[in-house]
Amino acid sequence: MTTLAALSAGSRALVNALPEQQRLSRRLIALGLTPGSEVHVLQNRGRGPLIVEAHGARIALGRRQADRVTVIE
């Protein structure tokens, strides 16, 4: 397992777990990032926001947020 922030552009993974912080978890769920959902990393330049695709929607996440989402490659 790794974090969403560690994936390179073009990678696909399944969301394994969301952060324990309820406020952030609720936001991620509202955006479509739920455990078991597939994500496709569209942009990860190593710093700044990541852009991922989940359920056909593009989502921009801050690096700190993405670092708290564990995924299975």
Structure description:
The chain is built from two helices and six strands. The protein is an alpha+beta fold and 73 residues long. The N and C termini lie close together (7 Å). The mean pLDDT is 94.
Count of separate DSSP helical elements? 2
Q: Based on CA inertia axes, which overall geometry fits?
A: globular
Q: Assess the beta-strand content as a share of residues.
A: 35-45%
Low-confidence stretches: none
Across the major sheet, the strand order is 1-6-2-3-4-5
Which class do the helix and strand fractions yield?
alpha+beta
Terminal residue distance: 7 Å
Characteristics of this structure?
about 70 residues; globular
Give a quick precis of the structure.
The protein has helices at residues 22-31, 63-67; strands at 2-3, 12-17, 38-43, 50-54, 57-61, 70-72. With 73 residues, the protein is α+β, with helices and mostly antiparallel strands.
